[in-house]
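=== Structure Prediction Worksheet ===
Name of assembly: unnamed complex
Input type: mixed (protein and possibly other molecules)
Chain count: two
Listed entries:
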Amino acid sequence: MEFLSTNLYNTSTAITVTSATDTAYFLFNPDIRRQFVSSGDADDNTTTTITISFDATQTIDRIIIKEHNIEAMNIFYGGTTANTFALTTTAGLTTVSQFASLAVSDLFLQFTAQAVTSVTFDLKATQVANVEKAVGFIYIGYQELDFERVPSSDGYKISKDPKEFMHELADGGTRRQVVDTKWKAQIKFKYITETFRNSLFNIWDQQNSKYFVPFGTGTGWDGIAFECVWTGNFDFYTYSDDAEQAGFSGKIELKET
Amino acid sequence: MSANSLLGQIANSNGKAFRRLEIKRRLDTGLYEDDWLDITDYVVKFGRVRKEIDSYRIGQFVFSNMTIIVDNKTGKFNPADSESSFWNGYSNQQRTLVRVSAGFVYESKSNGIWTRTEYPTGDEKIVFMGFISGDISIKGDNKISFPIAPLQEVFRQFNASRLTGYNDSLTASDFMFLLRDQQDASSNYIFRPFFGNTTTKWAITTTTVEYPNLSTSTAEDLLNATAWEVVQKLAQAENYSVYITNDGTFTFGPRDTANSTSFYFFGPGDYDATYKRTIKKVGQYGGRFSKYYSRVSVKWVDADTTSSYQVQSSQFTVSAESGPWILGEKTLEIENFWIADATTAGNIASAIFDEFSALKTEIDFTTSFIPHLNIGEQIEVTYDQTDFNPSNAWDLSVWANSGIPATTTTDQVTSDNQSELAFAPATSLNDYYSQQFSAPTTGDLTKIGLKVYSTTTTTGQIAFDVMGDNGSDEPDGITLGTAFIDVSTVDTSIPASLTYYTLSSSVSVTASELYFLVARIVTAPADGFFAFRYDDSLTADGLVSKLSYDAGATWTIDLTDYSFARGFVIETTAQDPSNVLIWDAGGGEALDLQKEVFRIISIELDLDKLETRFTCRQD
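=== Predicted Assembly ===
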């Protein structure tokens, strides 16, 4: 369970694509159904390239790709294909950021921290052969806080909440219209260390948004990762027990931005 | 109905909707930027969009203002001199163009690729076009209210005497083209930037009447008039309508009186698989006395002489058919000295009289989100508040369906679909709720003479609609005029003579053309039920029914030469229910509308609740 930085790019000027430039800005749009979709590249022998460049060198260790249909792709930095990322969670995947037979639509990549000025995604083949390449969302950033442990099951509540409009019709029936859905999470801890408490306070005190990834994993990832704000007070100064060495208790209320 | 369509999304019980707010700022040159900027993410409250017309046939169209509240925590909506502002590097926030779109989203996935389709499509999804105009209020909680004026305001904010290009032979359409093509001294268009910066957003129908009173910019009629006032006055003088559509098209032309139903609304009591039920509640329903006028006077010349007026009025007689006698004399006075001649003034008076001379009902109801309908469109409403009682056999099915065509007094008298009017095939006039007749002469049918009696039912209201023939000896379903009959006024035995009932609007009939008279229930009785049935006994006097034309001269349609003479009987609970069709059972229903046809006169979209409120007028 971890907090990551905000996405290190958020303008279309940071993105260069080899086709369908009009959909490039969907890559940082959190609505994953609004995808970047290549145009004229519905051929597994044709590579579609996405390059995301940064104004200044960034040190990154996380890449998230959501709602894609890619089977084979290479990810590298600095414009050089050999500059692959050394993956640190590789169960079921390769050890470097070159993939030949992906069968999932969401990918969470954790790798050794690397200083980069750009990150390139060469999209080669699609899971259903010879269709346009599609990517719903790309996150590039770094870890800010790794939770010292995960909460107990009853200390972790997560939901996807709709902004919905309910209509009660004249006959008593119901009609529902949804504008959007957002994640919401509540995490409760007891007996955390002072070190962890201070780290949590630093995150809360920054008063800006973070990326929350509850269970990032190389294979079988549930795709849950969202930019959020920590709402409400910081109450981890509460002692969990009379014995102060037992640690501290509190809760984190996160709402997707 | 597929969910991948506008109708499918409206009827979808669980769908996705969108609202979008976009702006176009003015560059420091004063010209508008090319592209729209989407600022939807900052909207806290969209507000409501309301458009209305006081009468479709008069054509005073109004688009209300909007107030949109946005979140200004990031300073994006600060004045232009603030570095964080969207307007930094652009001109003042005032007169920033605003476009609001709303509708539904259909999403589907194939081969890992999502396809997203918005409905309505194209420019139909635009629900409001305007510009920021007015005081911008910054609230203490970092929210800002933007007052948005509709596009027609751009003409209200421009004095007509500033326009150039007046001439001695200016027509109404010339004036509209003048607005479209108006430029400043540097050849910059003045009004086009508000209308897509092209000519394609100007739908102007050419006219021929010249207005010498608009020959120069110093003309008396222009000095203190806004451009919009001149536009409206010319539209009235031409008997045209002028309005700006949702997507920002300036439209000047004849009024659209198309008689095709755009949408069908259903409440309780009926169901349609395509339109489903969308009505949430009915606010008001009833005759709109405030919009009844027995007399319309159009003054088209300033001189106070008889010839300066063109008047249309109802006949004043002391009778049940006389509107002025029953409802009182009310005069609508219109004055427009730009009207070219007496004929045009007479046509204007006639058009307004046709709309207002009958007491028409209006209905106000709220629905789930329906974004695409427009003022003037024809709609149909079905709303039946009959309580559903499983132990009650009334109103659930057709009874005694053995008698088509009916040959005995106990056979039922309608079609299998109890929610429809009776459209039984009538090759030999064996239709029961409806009677076919051939107009003996060309003219205006204003009344019908009927013999109607009820044995004991004394409350409720029935109606007879005049409809055309659909080419197959069946009513075509289009109501041309209606005669309403309060059951409390009918005889309890076979009447000796006809009672003449005035139609809600006169029906222009052509000699030898076929028409139908179709009976229906308007309000169920409190003391029983209605059942229309064929009754042989009504032939006893040899003349059962005749339809009469009365507009000065009287002509009569004599039905005695048909092999089956028909009459209408209203029975009570004493009647054996297995022998008649029950259309409405139980009592005390306040509202029972069966495919009533209306025309929309106002629409209010609440973009924060995603609901639509319609006000419609009987058509």
